[in-house]
Amino acid sequence: MSAGKTVGVSGNRLARALLYSVLIVFAVYYLLPLYVMLVNSVKPLDEIRQGNMLALPDVFTLEPWARAWSSAQIGVQPTGLKPYFFNSILMVVPAVAISTVLGALNGYVLTKWRFRGDDIVFGLILLSCFIPFQIALIPAARILGMLGIAGTTQGLVLIHVVYGLGFTTLFFRNYYAAFPTELVRAAQIDGAGFFQIFRRILLPSSAPIIVVTVIWQFTNIWNDFLFGVSFGDFDSQPMTVALNNLVSSSGGVKEYNVHFAGAILAALPTLVVYIVSGRYFVRGLMAGAVKG
Amino acid sequence: MAFLKIDNLRKSFGKVDVLKGIDLEIEEGGFLVLVGPSGCGKSTLLNTIAGLEPITSGSISINGKVVNDLHPSQRDIAMVFQSYALYPNMTVAENIGFGMEIRGVPKAERDAAIAKVAETLQIGALLNRKPSQLSGGQRQRVAMGRALVRDPMVFLFDEPLSNLDAKLRVDMRTEIKRLHQRMGTTIVYVTHDQIEAMTLATKIAVLKDGVLQQFGTPAEIYNTPNNLFVADFMGSPSMNLIPAKVKASGGDVAIMMERDEGEPLALPFAGANGALAGRDGQNVVFGIRPEALTDPDSADRNARHVSELDCDIEVIEPAGSDTFAVTRLGGREIVARLRADAPISAGQTARLAFNLDKALLFDPETEARIV
Q1: Are residues A99 and A232 in the same domain?
Q2: Tens digit of pLDDT for each residue in B44-85?
Q3: For the whole model, what pTM was predicted?
Q4: Which residues span the domain enclosing B133?
Q5: Could you say which DSSP state residue A9 is in?
Q6: Which of B330, B333, B226, B225 is nearest to B285 (CA)?
Q7: Is B234 among the domain residues?
Q8: Do A201 and B102 touch (CB under 8 A)?
């Protein structure tokens, strides 16, 4: 009996060791590109040219970061990524905020103020999650032109809000479907109106799904390239487009260290958002999935 | 003068008729219990009174004023929900005060009202807690506090005790009854528990499939149920309903019931000759409650018509205060309620007294009561 137990435990240990080695191999595999980027972004260009990408820097320098940020050649202007970083911020923050608020309101109406045909409306909104970006480019360009906001940050915000609405509505609808309707009824009897119920009863309980939605929208919009390159001008192009212009500019030498630094700069905000609220991300997704 | 009056109320969800013409009324200070099996429409009826569901046709009036088109908050009602529906992000005090806050009542006045209700319900120590920190019984009290603080014309209770454990349920039942006696406010109360209905109500409405089966005092519902459904639904253990035949010869009427062995049982039925005239040979359903079928010693001395007969006892179920004996008549299991120490055992033949004053006859086709 006790012998059998010992065998079981040691077998367990072996399996666990195996499991961990596989996990570590995968982790290293996925972290390797980040390592290469980091290491090479703090080397002088000569050192990279010598060919050993994996070696730690002999001479440590932050100059490539400074160049990528404020003086590298982007297209024809030596502006660095700085202005585009702020373009991205100016686009992402309102787009995420508006699409999250509208998604929450949609979810609230679709679950707690149901009307005839609400399932069809939800189905149509959901459909927008499956439409590829490329199909919408020409109609979107026409609408932006008609509204007179082509090439502006507002135009990009509008496109991202419209495109994100399907996902944010889906998230909030599934979350609120599990929210007890009796609470809404109690608040109605207490005399609370449509927005009062939303603000005082539903929103305080929505933190997990708000985090999920914000992460999702932030990552998608920040990383978007197609809409940015199609509908952005110099003063509205986002970071992703600028990074592409930095890396693929044809004149002069390829400054790999600056490219690496620029790429990390471009990825940094999403990384920060994940690290700060990643815990809630998993928890929120689970909550929506299981109860919804 | 009816205080709450419901007139020919109909409610449909699409093509499905949930309420099919309900007429009810209750006087001021009355306690109306809506009772019925799941899906009978009782909760929908309560929601229409609250204004949470729009009605298809008919009218609802409170204190002489038609409230059909009024918003729930303007009907002067308060509701206690089955799940308690306490706002999870607010403390107990905020929960109770939320309605007043929305209506713009000043903070000092609000706090005074909350304190008063908290004292009535003995939840003063809980005021700063969140609902998640409360037990089931405490949540129940807070939910009632939220209703009480409104001081409404009508209280609506939607199965408020069904989430509590058995002992607490009985305690809270008593408490609700005491509260009603003290406050004297009109109450409409939904339950599927017929004991709750009997103990609390001044008037009971029994519903089935969206149709009002019977509306009356608890005694009326219990003693003279309109039909087989009400007879079977109310009372625990439920009424014995036995297939039987009418035998009328001369002026005497008897009810004949088949037995598994031996002669059919013949019970002289002197009660209502008129109603049974011309029913000779017809099938009826003979209904008798377990307490009207007992050992001869504990039979009701004031009853005018008692028949004593020998029955084969199949099972004995001692319940402490009573002993239930199961026998068989007309192919059905029949429960008799005997005193606790009745000298009786399973497998024997025992003499049982049928109190025919309390017996009822139903038409098996229409299911309506004949006598």
Answers
A1: yes
A2: 999 999 999 999 999 999 999 999 999 999 999 999 999 999
A3: 0.81
A4: 4-228
A5: H
A6: B330
A7: no
A8: no
